[in-house]
Write a structure and sequence with these properties.
Layout (H helix, E strand, L loop, with lengths): L18 H16 L35 H4 L5 H16 L2 H7 L9 H4 L1 E11 L1 H4 L9 E11 L5 E13 L2 E13 L1
Antiparallel strand pairs: 1-2, 2-3, 3-4
Helix pairs in contact: 3-4
Length: 187
C-alpha cells in the first residue's frame, strides 16, 4: 500500500452489528416508555363537589335555551339600540367613562385600555338580526348592533378597523349592554 493514500469511507469494511447504535436505540425506547407516566392525562370532568355542612349548595347548571322561533331570530334591532351602540363605542374612544358606565354594569377604564392606544377616524353602525349575531344561547330579547370603527394607532403608523358586536337588553326604559365581542385588525 502506498503511503499517504486512504481509501474512501464508503469502501471501508464496517462491522455487521454496530454496538453504539444498538445502545442508543435501546436507551431511546427506554426513555420513551418510561416517560409515559409524565405525559398529560386526558381531560375528565371535575369530581362532584360535596355540600359542606351549613354551607350553600353548588350552583345548578343552567339548561340550554331552546332556539327561538324564526320571527325572533330574524327581528332586527330598533333605532335606539343602534344609537346606544354608537354612543357606547364613541365613549370608549373619547374616554367618556360616564356614558360607557350608563350602558355597562361594572364598567371601569380598564375595559377601554386597547381603545386608549387607538384614535377613531370613522364609525359606522348597523342593526343586526338576533340569528345573525351568532350567540345561539343568548337571551331572545337581546337586540344586536354591529359597529365598525376605522382607527389608527396613536404611536406609530398602523391603521385598520375594529369590529364590535354589541347585544343590548331592555330594562324598563333603559338599554343595558348584555353581550359584546370585539375584533381588532391593524396593519
Amino acid at each position: 500500500m502506498r503511503r499517504g493514500f486512504r481509501s474512501p469511507r464508503w469502501l471501508t469494511a464496517r462491522p455487521l452489528f454496530d454496538h453504539r447504535r444498538a445502545v442508543l436505540g435501546i436507551l431511546g425506547i427506554t426513555l420513551a416508555v418510561g416517560g409515559l407516566g409524565c405525559w398529560p392525562q386526558p381531560r375528565v370532568p371535575a369530581p362532584p363537589v360535596a355540600q359542606s355542612p351549613g354551607g350553600a349548595a353548588p350552583a345548578a347548571v343552567r339548561t340550554p335555551r331552546p332556539t327561538p322561533p324564526p320571527e325572533v331570530r330574524e327581528r332586527v334591532a330598533s333605532t335606539d339600540v343602534v344609537e346606544a351602540a354608537r354612543a357606547y363605542v364613541t365613549a370608549l374612544y373619547t374616554a367618556d367613562d360616564a356614558t360607557a358606565a350608563s350602558y355597562q354594569e361594572g364598567y371601569t377604564e380598564l375595559l377601554r385600555k386597547d381603545e386608549n392606544e387607538l384614535e377613531m377616524e370613522d364609525l359606522t353602525v348597523r342593526p343586526m338580526a338576533w340569528g345573525e349575531a351568532g350567540y345561539l344561547d343568548a337571551d331572545p330579547a337581546t337586540e344586536w348592533a354591529e359597529v365598525v370603527v376605522r382607527v389608527h394607532t396613536r404611536r406609530g403608523n398602523s391603521s385598520g378597523r375594529v369590529y364590535y358586536k354589541l347585544g343590548f337588553l331592555r330594562e324598563d326604559d333603559k338599554l343595558r349592554l348584555d353581550l359584546a365581542s370585539r375584533r381588532i385588525e391593524l396593519r
